[in-house]
């Protein structure tokens, strides 16, 4: 099938970023097409993640990720009101389990102050255990963030895509991009269904964004694939914790979290392992053991017998750990 229509914008990738771009561009008088290789939007990284809207204080100011974390946080409530996906403002505690962890809490408070994130507070041990009595007695202190929320991530992708489609954006799933070329300021995108022509191409291909950049003749976008395994616990544990529980973060990961999902089920994870295969979504016995051990450090009442489901997702990481636009 030959493509004769000239689009103003072609978006490559139908994860949460691509769908959010499509939703935003649908507000304007533009011809927009979104190309997604999977059979449905949101079937890559976006369906297999923690579903957390970070509070705004997690990432350092001065980075693009740090700026967008808080800016993005403030948009999600309005998107939920508009599109009707699952969203709950549950708050979060980042927990110190030793005196050595306390400087990490100070950094979070500094981030919040620099970015003017409201309500972020230092809680002493007694206040933490009053709010979350199932946490370990080893808690020393915590930073509380009232702005952290949880969403149903695939519902969010579907809502964004459906809204965009209703306003004229073409959503083409099962449509992998196999090549890109430019001529006279127009792009021709090769797909198995035929070429797609556009004035602008936006690369939102996630773990495959590096491959798309190479097709476009761009260097310097080496994408590393980082896999995270997540484990869902039995519904009888609903209410074991009431807000997202973080350990103190490392340079490459926010650590193993205890997450009350939007649906109420408790989820623990993720791991953060670099993998050669960007499509490797297997779970492993070693990953399960690490997640459970880390989760028990935070909430000792969790048991391996409580795990009822498991899954993994792979996310894109650049060498500087920041976002790139």
Could you list some keywords that capture this structure?
single chain; about 325 residues; alpha+beta; 6-stranded mixed β-sheet; 5-stranded antiparallel β-sheet; 7 helices; elongated
Describe the structure.
- The chain is α+β, with helices and mostly antiparallel strands and 325 residues long.
- The chain has seven helices and 18 strands.
- Helix 1 (16-25) runs parallel beside helix 5 (153-166).
- It starts with 5 loop residues before the first strand and ends in an 8-residue tail after the last strand.
Characterize this entry briefly.
The protein is an alpha+beta fold and 325 residues long. It has helices spanning 16-25, 64-83, 102-115, 125-131, 153-166, 209-215, 285-298; strands at 6-12, 32-35, 52-53, 87-88, 92-96, 121-124, 141-145, 149-151, 170-172, 179-183, 186-190, 196-203, 224-233, 244-247, 257-260, 266-269, 273-275, 307-317.
**What characterizes the major β-sheet?**
6 strands, mixed
Please state the structural category: alpha+beta
The total of beta strands comes to 18
Unreliable segments (pLDDT under 50, ≥5 consecutive)? none
Described by the principal axes of the CA atoms, the overall outline is elongated
What is the count of helical runs?
A: 7
Strand order of the largest sheet: 9-2-1-12-11-10
Mean pLDDT: 95
Q: What portion of residues belong to β-strands? A: 25-35%
CA-atom Rg in angstroms: 21 Å
Could you spell the SSE succession in H and E letters? EHEEHEEHEHEEHEEEEHEEEEEHE
Distance between the termini: 32 Å
Helix content class? 25-40%
């Amino acid at each position: 099938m030959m493509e004769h229509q000239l689009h103003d914008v072609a978006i490559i990738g139908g994860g949460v970023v691509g769908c959010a771009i499509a939703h935003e561009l649908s507000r304007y008088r533009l011809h927009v097409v979104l190309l997604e290789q999977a059979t449905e939007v949101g079937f890559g990284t976006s369906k297999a993640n923690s579903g957390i809207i970070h509070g705004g204080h997690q990432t350092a100011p001065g980075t693009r990720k740090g700026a967008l974390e808080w800016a993005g946080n403030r948009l999600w409530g309005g998107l939920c009101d508009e599109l009707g996906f699952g969203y709950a403002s549950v708050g979060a505690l980042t927990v110190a389990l030793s005196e050595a962890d306390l400087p990490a809490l100070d950094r979070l408070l500094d981030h919040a102050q620099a970015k003017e994130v409201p309500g972020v507070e230092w809680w002493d041990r007694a206040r933490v255990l009053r709010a979350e009595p199932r946490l370990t007695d080893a808690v020393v202190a915590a930073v509380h963030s009232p702005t952290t929320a949880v969403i149903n991530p695939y519902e969010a992708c579907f809502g964004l895509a459906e809204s965009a489609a209703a306003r004229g954006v073409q959503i083409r799933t099962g449509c992998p991009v196999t090549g890109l070329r430019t001529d006279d300021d127009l792009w021709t995108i090769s797909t198995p269904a035929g070429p797609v022509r556009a004035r602008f191409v936006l690369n939102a291909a996630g773990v495959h964004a590096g491959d798309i950049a190479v097709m476009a003749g761009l260097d310097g976008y080496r994408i590393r694939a980082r896999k995270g395994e997540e484990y869902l616990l039995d519904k009888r544990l609903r209410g074991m914790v009431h807000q997202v529980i973080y350990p103190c973060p490392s340079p490459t990961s926010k650590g193993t979290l205890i997450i009350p999902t939007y649906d109420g089920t408790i989820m623990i994870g993720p791991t953060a392992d670099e993998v050669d295969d960007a499509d490797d979504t297997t779970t492993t016995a070693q990953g399960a053991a690490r997640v459970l051990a880390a989760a028990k450090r935070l909430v000792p009442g969790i048991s391996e017998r409580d795990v009822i489901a498991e899954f993994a997702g792979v996310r894109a990481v650049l060498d500087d750990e920041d976002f790139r636009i």
